[in-house]
């Protein structure tokens, strides 16, 4: 390697210029820099294929290409298996090495090992830098050297570790002369279009993400976060930065640093930072125990008997359960590709506890539609809701959807936003429309079983069924131990 050999910056889930350790490392070398994105068919069309995320990804890459061109650089694009594409591209531009932001998912680790081996055969190094997380999995382990499975101790350790400094975006990038590659469109990547309404999807790209961050900070979002974060009736209760984190349009270090500085680390911003810690808790858990990608962290529930209920699953997916808070959330997901976290917990508890349907069916549905669908965070959230994962709570925790609705959408504003059939239902009945009298149904223009479904299950009976099923699984596991 000489000071004239280009360095490849292989971009994946880090589609930004600000606070980008791998990019900063490449620029600091003083050598020509070749930013490269590889469209990987194994990811695009794997078990968590998503038209919504692919649309957002593609548009964010187009935006990044413009930002690079404004700095005298270019974004190189290729399609194919990275283990073949990276060595070929490196040879094409006579690169000395490849630098990348470290990936922590099981697939990402396998892919990166294969790429490192292929590059080594060509005598090219692959150098992985931090960048997707604030703290790496090796830096947070128990006294026994294992990963944390309970969030409280993890959070205390996470908060005690110093964060690295935020890095500036480069003003100029010394470029490489080579074929940039044709930018594919959505159809070329095998998708007809997003499943959500494009008008309701967030604006892609780093520039838009930075505007969202500035708005969140300028309007006091972190300051109020502890008070507002669970309110479903307030569309501004949360930051709406999850998709930006998912694709690395924003750095988690910059978000945490600026949020904590916004109110001197008081309760609101500390609570917001703890949500970033939850994201890392789940990423670390999957890194330490890759098996949980397909099975429960708590092995007592490995053989729990789930209901084979295709019609019930479809009703849940379509927002036709008869429970307004569940149905409103599921329709919001369909239309926007996003859900507030409180809504995610409510619908996940309903599917796994009230309906006793396998959590993996919910996990797949979320990953199909969520713009911010992250393998570790989505997995962790579903296992938490099903009481089978990290930071496990007793399986007796079963969310009552009506109680949750009255607490977090007290006037029914959220329900009415997503369920137009219930717009005229009286406030006192909005979360239990099946309790309306025939006259009330006629006045509201909402006849239960006709205009809006009757409840698909009785919550009290469903709760007892779930408790019995979970207890049976625990007893079976104990006998087999």
Written description of the protein model:
The chain is mainly alpha-helical. The protein has three domains: 7-131, HUPs (Rossmann fold); 133-166 and 207-288, Serine Threonine Protein Phosphatase 5, Tetratricopeptide repeat; 299-475, DNA Cyclobutane Dipyrimidine Photolyase, subunit A, domain 3 (Orthogonal Bundle). 48% of the residues lie in helices and 5% in strands. It has 20 helices and five strands. The protein has helices at 21-28, 41-44, 51-70, 82-93, 106-121, 151-160, 206-218, 221-228, 242-246, 252-262, 267-288, 310-318, 324-336, 341-354, 359-369, 375-385, 401-408, 413-418, 438-444, 459-480; strands at 7-11, 33-39, 76-79, 97-101, 125-129. Strands 3-2-1-4-5 form a five-stranded parallel sheet, sandwiched between helices. It is globular, with a radius of gyration of 24 Å.
């Amino acid at each position: 390697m000489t000071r004239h050999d280009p360095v490849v910056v292989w971009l994946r889930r880090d589609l930004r210029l600000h606070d980008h350790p791998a990019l900063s490392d490449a620029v600091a070398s003083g050598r020509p820099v070749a930013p490269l994105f590889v469209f990987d068919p194994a990811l695009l069309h794997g078990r968590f294929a998503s038209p919504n995320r692919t649309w957002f990804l593609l548009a964010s890459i187009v935006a990044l290409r413009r930002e690079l061109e404004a700095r005298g650089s270019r974004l190189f694009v290729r399609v194919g298996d990275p283990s073949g594409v990276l060595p070929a591209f490196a040879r094409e531009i006579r690169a000395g090495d490849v630098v990348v932001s470290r990936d922590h998912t099981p697939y990402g680790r396998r892919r990166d090992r294969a790429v490192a081996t292929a590059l080594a055969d060509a005598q090219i190094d692959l150098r992985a830098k931090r960048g997707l997380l604030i703290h790496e999995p090796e830096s947070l382990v128990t006294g026994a050297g294992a990963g944390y499975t309970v969030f409280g101790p993890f959070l205390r350790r996470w908060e005690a570790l110093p964060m690295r400094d935020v890095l500036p975006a480069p003003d100029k990038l010394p470029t490489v002369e080579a074929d940039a590659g044709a930018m594919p469109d959505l159809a070329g990547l095998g998708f007809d279009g997003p499943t959500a309404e494009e008008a309701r999807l967030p604006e892609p790209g780093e520039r838009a993400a930075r505007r969202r961050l500035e708005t969140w900070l300028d309007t006091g979002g972190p300051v109020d976060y502890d008070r507002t974060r669970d309110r479903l009736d307030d569309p501004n209760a949360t930051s709406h930065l999850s998709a930006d984190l998912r694709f690395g349009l924003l750095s988690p270090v910059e978000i945490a640093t600026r949020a904590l500085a916004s109110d001197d680390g008081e309760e609101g911003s500390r609570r917001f930072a703890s949500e970033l810690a939850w994201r890392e808790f789940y990423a670390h858990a999957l890194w330490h125990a890759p098996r949980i990608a397909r099975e429960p962290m708590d092995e007592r529930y490995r053989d729990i008997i789930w209901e084979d209920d295709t019609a019930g699953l479809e009703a849940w997916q379509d927002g036709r359960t008869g429970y307004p808070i569940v149905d409103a959330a599921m329709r919001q997901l369909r239309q926007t590709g996003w859900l507030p976290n409180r809504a995610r917990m409510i619908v996940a508890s309903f599917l796994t506890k009230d309906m006793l349907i396998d959590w993996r069916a919910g996990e797949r549905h979320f990953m199909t539609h969520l713009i911010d669908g992250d393998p570790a965070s989505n997995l962790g959230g579903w296992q938490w809701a099903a009481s089978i994962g990290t930071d496990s709570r007793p399986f007796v925790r079963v969310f009552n959807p009506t109680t949750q609705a009255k607490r977090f959408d007290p006037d029914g504003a959220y329900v009415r936003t997503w369920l137009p059939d219930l717009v005229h239902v009286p406030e006192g009945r909005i979360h239990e429309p099946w309790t309306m009298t025939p006259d009330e149904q006629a006045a509201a223009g909402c006849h239960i079983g006709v205009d809006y479904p009757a409840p698909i299950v009785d919550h009290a009976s469903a709760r007892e069924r779930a408790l019995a099923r979970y207890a049976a699984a625990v007893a079976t596991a104990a006998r087999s131990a």
